[in-house]
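Reposting from the mailing list since nobody answered there.

I have sequence plus structure tokens for a pair of proteins and want to know whether others read the tokens the same way I do. The first protein:
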Amino acid sequence: MSLPDVTWALGRPTIGLAATLASRLRAYGRDRVPLDGGLVVASNHFSWLDPAVLGASSPRILYYMAKVEAHRVPGLGAFIRAFGCFPVRRGESDREAVRTMRRIVAEGHALGLFVEGTRQYSGVPGQVQPGAAMVALQEDVPIVPVAIHGSQGWKPAPGGFQAVSIAWGEPMTFDGLPKGGRGYKEASALLQTEIRRLFDWLVEVHSLGRPDGVPPARRDH
């Protein structure tokens, strides 16, 4: 058993439960996540709360990528690395981070990526960067698109915490696309469209009071 296995086993009933309660978390479609084999979990990103709620919702251990500055914070760096998190240098080519991403999925694990590259402050998902598509195409693994809604501007609200919801999409594969820049761009555009579709679905679900047990609508194939 690896260190991330142990840390996640301890973290789910503690940090995961705290995040779930603090966000009144509700997840839709998590049964769509393949339970074995390499894959990329690709989510939008609004808040520092997102890694905790996404991890709490996921049936798989997620190996997250985080900016190198976070890894340099005393205490925090060691803490997130215990969960399998690895660093990336943003704004430049980081070949070591790319090798780590590919190794994670090649070894049959689930790579967790916030695909816009940074938090979005507009209140809606932003442009998807090509990293997720690159890993999926190069290693021939699926991408599971995820939308998070409610964590934008999250704070304790009168009468209870602000509600956060997560929608898990169907695994996406990109057979026929080239393993290069054009393929990464096309796959990223498809992924961006699907994350936004799931996000808009969550907005509607929130307006209806977040009914339980309703699977996200399937995408057009």
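The second protein, same order (residues first, tokens after):
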Amino acid sequence: MVSLKLDSHRVRFTRYDHTFTSEEAINNLGSLKFSQSNRMPDPKDPSRIVTTTTTTTFSMAKEMARSVCQRFVDARFIESVDGKALPIFPLKGALFQLTPKGINILQRFCQRNGITARHVMDVLESPRNTMQLVNLERDTETDKLSHDRATIEVIFRRFAGQDGPNIKSSISTSDSDSLSDYSNGIVGVKMARERKLQDGKSYNNTFTGKGAVDWLMDCSTTIERRETCLIAELFLKYGLITMIQDDKSFPDSNAVFQPSKYAIYTITERGQRVCGWIARDKARDANANPNNTTYDSRGMPRDSNNARLTHILGDPALRLLFREFLRYSLCEENLSFYLDVSEFTANYHKAEKAGTFAKVDSVRETLAAAYGELLSN
């Protein structure tokens, strides 16, 4: 996206800004160049700042480039301007644009790398930059999702809708494939006000398995359906949602969660308590204090503010909840900076212990990384 020319294109009588053709995307990937500048002090004169520009080039065949573009579509980073789903990314003849999710991802990348190219800033400053993604916590070593109950409950609050259910007036609108309802990540999954199922009973506030997967794909940092199904399975495991009608024709009879348009789910009473629709029980969770730490009435460690913050930052669930709080306070970048610095410090000590700083190149790379973090944040 940084190296792709995003321009205005006309389709019939409508002009679309910040768009690109499928052919432009494939050609760009076929001969991709990305330049990044790092500022660091001159080793001979620390008072001088030296700017080093690194240019990375990629080259790939058209079919490989089309496959990469298809991954972008599957991850909901880009979409056809007409909103129609395409079974395979075309070599030419189609017009695409960044989704609100894709713009959010691009914005984070540009902030981390200090990119201020005009054509990119135009997209980031456009009215389509509305998404506030749920940043899924991951293990720094394996990149696997954190799946403890507390973390899943934080994700679930956004999924269900903290301000109440995202009710649609009819079943057809709640089950539609339109993604416009998920332009900002604040409202929850689309639900039908009332739905009559095969057992003859009517149920309120229901949603489909496909609807759940769509919300998780569009409003969180997951990039593949397998992870969305895993999260939905954890919603079931922790008693936050329940299936009220299965899809008899679903191919995998052993599937815990069915990402199908005909599998119907609803929020359980426990789920309603977790997301704040109804009052929560005051009884403390039996698993909330595994280390025998003493807590005050707000659930915080009885210790200094520094100890409390350390406890929050060291717990994936609390860290995710803290990030949500910072997002509402418009200072989420502070946490991102802290985590980046912590990761850099850990890598530094690891390299120091391994003795790699005996090489000049390693020292330069470390200094460049440090200045890169400083400038981007």
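Reply #1 (J.P.):
I read it the same way you do. The two ends are 21 Å apart (CA to CA).
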